[in-house]
Amino acid sequence: MIADRKDDHVRHAVDQRRADSGGNDFDCVTFVHHALAGIDSGEVSLAVDVAGKQWDTPLYVNAMTGGSAKTGEINRKLAVAARETGIPIAAGSMSAFFRDPAVADTYRVLRRENPHGFVMANVNATASLEQVLRAIELLEADALQIHLNAVQEVVMPEGDRSFGSWPRQIEHLVAHVPIPVIVKEVGFGLSRQTVAWLRDAGVSVADVGGRGGTNFARIENSRRPAGDFAFLESWGQSTPTCLLDCAGLDGIDIAASGGIRSPLDIARALALGASATGVAGAFLDTVVRADTDALVAQIRTWLDQLRQILTVLGARTPADLAGCDLLITGEVASFCALRGIDAAALAHRSPWWRESRDRGGVIGE
Ligand SMILES: Cc1cc2nc3c(=O)[nH]c(=O)nc-3n(C[C@H](O)[C@H](O)[C@H](O)COP(=O)(O)O)c2cc1C
């Protein structure tokens, strides 16, 4: 049952991605170009600190597959690509393994193909401590992802309808799991209030998992004979709005996923305060449509292009992007106005802006 559902998810995710217009809220986030801000490419390091560990890149393969023969093979390809490019990778939900240990290998392949990489286990918020420890052991996991997906469950024909135990169970797992815990949404976003709650519960990383990419309301609605939940397809906050909502929250790392389409979106997310960015749908599309080599080439190209974006912006590290001037427009600006976020302040936060102000005004005045 879970195996069939996983295969359905992959099929719908890939089909819907191809039919999608391609626009999302990242289009409302623009860097102000300062033509003399550039540095030498060799000065740029893409390394970031996430949950107390150093990652060589601010990019990871987010949770997707495992639990069926087909998705085990996808995991194998994703794991090889992660190994070849040195980027962290997450397993898809390990519920199928808890129901049927015979599918263990469709997940374990992530570690077998990538023995020295950073690998994350993935469970839902009802998993027991005993199950979680088994999942961690199977993958020799470096971190645990717990996914929050209430909207997906509601639209899923066979989905769960009970979410009241989630907060207590997250607290319980965080208190007993021996590795960092990441809590993620699956495409509907985490609000500032949710992230503050997660921080207070001891969660290391909140992956905002916002709207704008893979759409699980649409995917699950396609699996309903009557397709009667179409009205939920635009539910939730987009990834850029989530990041703006969380600005200034200390004590928890913020990761961004949901609708990352290019190296420019990675740079935008980092500039909006993310420590790292996760990609699911875009990488799935590549391994399904082409193959592992194509995904390796895509990730290498993206990392090289990201380095060039940082070079032009004068950012020596991904963290430096949080000091670049950004223009926030359209839907994202409306969100900021309604949530009391000073979006205009982001347009003049860089040393370039301060220097021009200190010299008595903008150039030409
Ligand atoms: C086919 C597919 C299966 C997924 N399965 C899971 C899952 O099991 N657990 C989870 O936390 N997220 C799952 N996700 C959600 C992704 O991790 C990610 O949060 C979401 O797709 C948004 O990122 P994207 O726009 O880059 O795809 C899945 C995504 C896809 C495309």
UniProtKB/TrEMBL annotation:
Its cofactor is FMN; NADPH; Mg(2+). FMN binds at residues 63-65, 93, 122, 184, 214, 259-261, 280-281. It comes from the Bacteria. It catalyses: isopentenyl diphosphate = dimethylallyl diphosphate. Its EC number is 5.3.3.2. GO terms for molecular function: FMN binding; isopentenyl-diphosphate delta-isomerase activity; magnesium ion binding; NADPH binding; oxidoreductase activity. Keywords: Cytoplasm, Flavoprotein, FMN, Isomerase, Isoprene biosynthesis, Magnesium, Metal-binding, NADP. This is Isopentenyl-diphosphate delta-isomerase. It comes from Nocardia neocaledoniensis. The lineage of its organism: Bacteria, Bacillati, Actinomycetota, Actinomycetes, Mycobacteriales.
